Structures are given as structure tokens and as C-alpha cells.
Amino acid sequence: MRSTTAVLVSLATASALLLAACTGKTPGERALGGPGRVIEIGIVTDGSAGVVETIRQGFVDGLAEAGYTEGEGLRLQVESPNGDAGALTEAVARLNTQDMDLILAISSPAAEVAVSEVSGTPLLFAGVHDPVGLGLVTSLDAPGGEVTGVCDVNPVAKQLELVKEIRPEATRVGIIHTGGALDAEAQVRQAEEEAAAMGLEVKAQPVGSLAEVRKAAESLDADAFLIPTDDVVTAGMEDVIEVAESRRVLVVASEGTVVEGGAAAAHAVDHDLQGREAAALAVRILEGTKPGDLPVVVQETFELVINEPAAERMGFPLPPALIERADEAY
């Protein structure tokens, strides 16, 4: 069952989009210059799978529900370079030279590049965990400038509670994370702060690339792995799961897609809702509100996602009470 908070946030988003759609005018008449105007939105990501794709589709669906439909007065240009920082910079530059009405950057790396490279175009971000820490905005309540967006805060304490609920005797939690990635390092610090009160010790192992993920998992002496929201580690989850199953280590994640791929459980962000929240902001910007006047939306709604077969392969059948509470099961 979804939480009351999740339902209220969903209703708030739906209400905002409904109001935008029911003004009695077409999108072209409501936004940016009148009838016949084709609105152009650029979307840049650092990949096209999993979480990023869910946010992107939620954004497109949210726009459509507000009357902004691709091919009907709206053109979307998606750049997903799936490459290094240089490729991402080139993708942002392509959008920046095409006179877009708005650019949406999905993921922290994409948002960082967009904020540094884009000027004169309203900019939204999504799939970001700490926009102030990353320097995207100076304040969540008053972003200022041409930037705002949607962020989520990984409920690290709740993930640690899952570890104790599924494996009560656990005392050591290993966290693999990308070294130097501000979002991931912030989650490690939070885990370290929360763990002691639960009788847990955190052992963090940074990696510099996908090739190092398996070795990091093998090097950790842990009762459980906690997987943060970290694109590099997520890409290496097949190796992490193999190590965990062979050594009887519980894996608790932070993303629903990681649970689907073999982790035991997670309190996961509703990324479809995050995309729709970004769409609601986009509608307001297209209809005249300055991005800097729109507070950053902090998404605090989570779904309990479980994978019973995966947990059993690790040697830890899920408690019946946990199964009963689950919003989604694999």
C-alpha cells in the first residue's frame, strides 16, 4: 500500500497539471508567444536505461496530461550520450545552440554540466539528490537565476532499518560507492551517522570505475551491502549480486530497478512521479513563471520494493510483515 504522503503528493501534482490543462487555451496560446508556436524542449541525460528512462517518460507523460503533446505544437530533442564527461558536454552544447525554450537535465552529472554550460535558457533538473551541495542552486526555497527542479533524498536510515529487519544479527554494512561523487559520498556520511544507533558499523569502499565494482564487493567483510543511488555501482550490480549470493551477504538497495535486478529490498523513489513533478514545473515555466521563482520540489515519497526469490538466494527469507507492507514485489 502506498503511503498517505505519496498519495497527497501525487494528487498535488495531478491538480497542478489539471489546472494548466483546463485554461480553455491550447498550449501554443498559453505559452511563449501565442497560437502556432512550436515549443522546443531539450532533454539531456547521462544514459537511457532504468531510472533515467523512467523519469524521462514520466516527464513526457506529465506534459501530455497538461496538453503539451509531442508532435502537436511540442518538439522534444533527447540527448543521451552514454559516454564520458566530454560526450555529455557536447550533448549539452548541441541543445544550447538550438534556441530551446527549456532544457531538462536528468541525473546529477547531466545537471552539473548543464548548469555550467547553458545560459539564457530555463533549466530544470531531475534525478538529483543534493542540488545545493552540487552547486546547482543556492537554496531549495529560492533557487534564483534560470534553474530549478526536482530532487529526492535517499532515506538511508530506512534502508539500514531494512537490513536489521531482514537480518537482525547483522553488525557490518558495506557500501560501495563512486569515489569523488558528491551525492554518493553524502549518502555514505549519512549512513555512518545513522548506523551506530542501530548497532551497525559502516565499511565504505570507493571505486573509480565500473571495472572496480566486483573487486570492491569481494574486498568488503560485511553482513550486508547497502547500495546507494550511484550510477557506476548500479551498472555493476550483476557482479555485486554474484558475490553476495556466494558469500551469504544481504543486499539492500536504494532503487527499485536494482531490486528488480536481484537486490532483496529497497525503499525506492517513485521516479515516474518525479518526472511528472518536473513536468508540472515545466508547464509553469512555459506559461511565464521564472525558474528561479519556483522552489525546488523535494520528493519524499518512497515505495517499499521487495524481491523474495533474490532474498532467498542470499539465504535470508523476507519476514511476512515486510512482505505484507510491500508496494511492489518481484
UniProtKB/TrEMBL annotation:
Pfam families: ABC_sub_bind. SUPFAM superfamilies: Periplasmic binding protein-like I. PROSITE patterns: PROKAR_LIPOPROTEIN. Keywords: Signal. Residues 1-20 form the signal peptide. It comes from the Bacteria. This is ABC transporter substrate-binding protein.
